[in-house]
Amino acid sequence: MEVINTLGRRKAAVARVYLSEGKGKITINKRDMETFFPTKPLQYIVNQPLELVDVVGKYDIKINIFGGGTKGQAEAVRLGITRALIEVNPEYRDALKKAGFVTRDPRVVERKKPGQPKARKKFQFSKR
Predict the structure, then answer these.
(1) Is the pTM of this model over 0.85?
(2) Residue 42 near residue 84 (C-beta atoms within 8 A)
(3) Three-state helix/strand/coil letters over the chain
(4) CB of 28 within 8 A of CB of 37?
(5) How confident is the model over 26-85, as pLDDT tens digits?
(6) By the 8 A CB rule, do 40 and 8 touch?
(7) What residue ranges do the domains of the chain occupy?
(8) Is domain 4-99 annotated with CATH 3.30.230.10?
């Protein structure tokens, strides 16, 4: 099997995912997943699509990620892995779609407007 290359995005994070047959090793930015995402909830987010279609330990995954925070990066990786799994076997799509992993979350931070302290917050209005 050749290497499958996909892209996952969330907020400002972009993850390039390379999936190939192997023993289940996940490498993120040349580091082990447990060192890159030290907390269990983030590791759980990354492993969700693999556990859902029951292919844990069948594929080696190499990921290059940049931008965003830790949560956004984890969710970008999840989307990239999901897209790669669908490319490997299109039958996985229904289960992954039902779990909500196929759709890219479009929510991003709203920009700050000039003349305001934040995106929507306004300075206090004084009538006199």
Answers:
(1) yes
(2) no
(3) CCCEEEEEEECCEEEEEEEEECCCCEEECCEEHHHHCCCHHHHHHHHHHHHHCCCCCCEEEEEEEECCCHHHHHHHHHHHHHHHHHHHCHHHHHHHHHHCCCCCCCCCCCCCCCCCCCCCCCCCCCCC
(4) yes
(5) 999 999 999 999 999 999 999 999 999 999 889 999 999 999 999 999 999 999 999 999
(6) no
(7) 4-99
(8) yes
